[in-house]
């Protein structure tokens, strides 16, 4: 049972979420042809970050969007799963060699490899999730054939932070990241701002462990779940009863620690963890969702229907590119749920800032 609150969820995400537990490609690279729609002469491809396509997080969410658009439009797809940074460039090149019309790379860490490939292959089209592909920080994408797919995740994390502060019985919230990069810290910024706003509005003193807006706790990777478990346990030992892990599969280690504690909530990231991490569904307070599946779907389908457009995609609360999943039933009363809905409207309208 859940409270009826799903903020910023797009209609397409519900259908895509049903595929959340589907198996990832068994071989890398692999190729899947659709059987549910008449074939279209177009090939969309995707290269994962090191978390792989079964990470219950951003790689999986993007992959599900690719599967969905393939099924609906009848296009051919191919994928390459990265085990580490050394795989990024070879996997992207493999997609190019396979004749992909569009190659989507998943994650900030693939930025330079994506730019290098795009510059070397000006007649190919690329998109990158969670990065602007602006590695020289001059305000423009470093190659003219890359479409950035980014998200104002702090808007949704602000709502989750407010909910976490309202739900906490100890007045202590914890958060940590995998690596200190913008696509990770934006979650932590939003959480901190949401907790701060709760304190301001309610005369409370809920504290956040693991992030102060500039420095915090990071495990150093997105794969070692034992680090997530030990980091979360450290927060629990300090009294935290709600934890936001922003670390891909490492977050599942935090969920294991919370489940063992028996009185700690986890906030999922990227997708609805009650669907993508069902073993921990009973301890998921809510999830901060980047609706990457629908974003991938829209970018690919738009490229099939018309000329490839490099205009950056930005997911926000207003366009439902980000949002939070249903809040666990019975944790917050109706008045707080109504407050969160009002806060969402304030963020969209500009009267509430999500800056910590």
Account of the 3D structure:
By secondary structure, this protein is an alpha/beta fold. It folds into two domains: 165 residues, Response regulator (Rossmann fold, 3-Layer(aba) Sandwich), CATH 3.40.50.2300; 162 residues, Response regulator (Rossmann fold, 3-Layer(aba) Sandwich), CATH 3.40.50.2300. Helices cover 39% and strands 18% of the residues. The chain is built from eleven helices and 13 strands. The strands form two sheets. Strands 1-3-2-4-5-6-12 form a seven-stranded mixed sheet, sandwiched between helices. A six-stranded mixed sheet has the order 8-7-9-10-11-13, sandwiched between helices. Helix 8 links the parallel strand 9 and strand 10. Helix 5 crosses helix 6 and helix 7 packs across helix 8. About 8% of the residues have low confidence.
Please summarize the sheet with the most strands. 7 strands, mixed
| Strands in their spatial order, largest beta sheet | 1-3-2-4-5-6-12
Kindly state the percentage of residues in helix: 25-40%
- The mean pLDDT is 89
Labels describing this entry:
356 residues; alpha/beta; Rossmann fold; 7-stranded mixed beta sheet; 6-stranded mixed beta sheet; 11 helices; 39% helix; 18% strand
């Amino acid at each position: 049972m859940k409270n009826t609150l799903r903020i910023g969820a797009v209609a397409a995400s519900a259908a895509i979420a049903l595929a959340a537990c589907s198996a990832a490609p068994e071989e890398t690279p692999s190729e899947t042809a659709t059987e549910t729609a008449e074939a279209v002469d177009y090939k969309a491809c995707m290269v994962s970050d090191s978390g792989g396509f079964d990470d219950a997080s951003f790689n999986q969410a993007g992959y599900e969007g690719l599967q969905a658009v393939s099924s609906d439009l009848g296009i051919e797809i191919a994928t390459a799963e990265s085990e580490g940074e050394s795989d990024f460039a070879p996997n992207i090149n493999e997609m190019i060699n396979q004749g992909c019309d569009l190659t989507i790379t998943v994650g900030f860490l693939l930025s330079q490899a994506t730019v290098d490939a795009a510059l070397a292959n000006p007649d190919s089209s690329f998109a990158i999730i969670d990065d602007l592909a602006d590695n020289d920080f001059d305000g423009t994408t470093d190659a003219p054939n890359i479409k950035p797919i980014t998200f104002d995740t702090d808007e949704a994390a602000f709502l989750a932070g407010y909910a976490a502060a309202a739900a906490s019985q100890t007045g202590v919230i914890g958060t940590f990241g995998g690596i200190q990069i913008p696509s990770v810290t934006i979650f932590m910024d939003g959480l901190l701002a949401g907790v701060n706003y709760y304190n301001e509005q309610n005369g409370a003193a809920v504290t956040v462990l693991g992030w102060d807006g500039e420095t915090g706790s990071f495990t150093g990777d997105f794969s070692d779940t034992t680090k997530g478990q030990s980091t979360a346990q450290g927060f629990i030992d300090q009294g935290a009863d709600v934890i936001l892990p922003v670390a891909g599969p490492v977050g599942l280690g935090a969920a294991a620690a919370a489940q063992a504690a028996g009185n700690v909530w986890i906030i999922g990231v990227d997708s609805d963890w009650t669907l993508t991490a069902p073993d921990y569904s009973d301890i998921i307070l809510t999830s901060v969702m980047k609706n990457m599946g629908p974003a991938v779907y829209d970018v690919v389908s738009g490229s099939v229907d018309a000329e490839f457009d490099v205009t950056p995609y930005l997911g926000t609360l207003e366009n439902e590119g980000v949002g939070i999943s249903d809040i666990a039933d019975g944790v917050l009363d109706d008045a707080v749920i109504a407050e969160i809905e009002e806060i969402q409207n304030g963020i969209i309208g500009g009267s509430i800032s999500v800056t910590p």
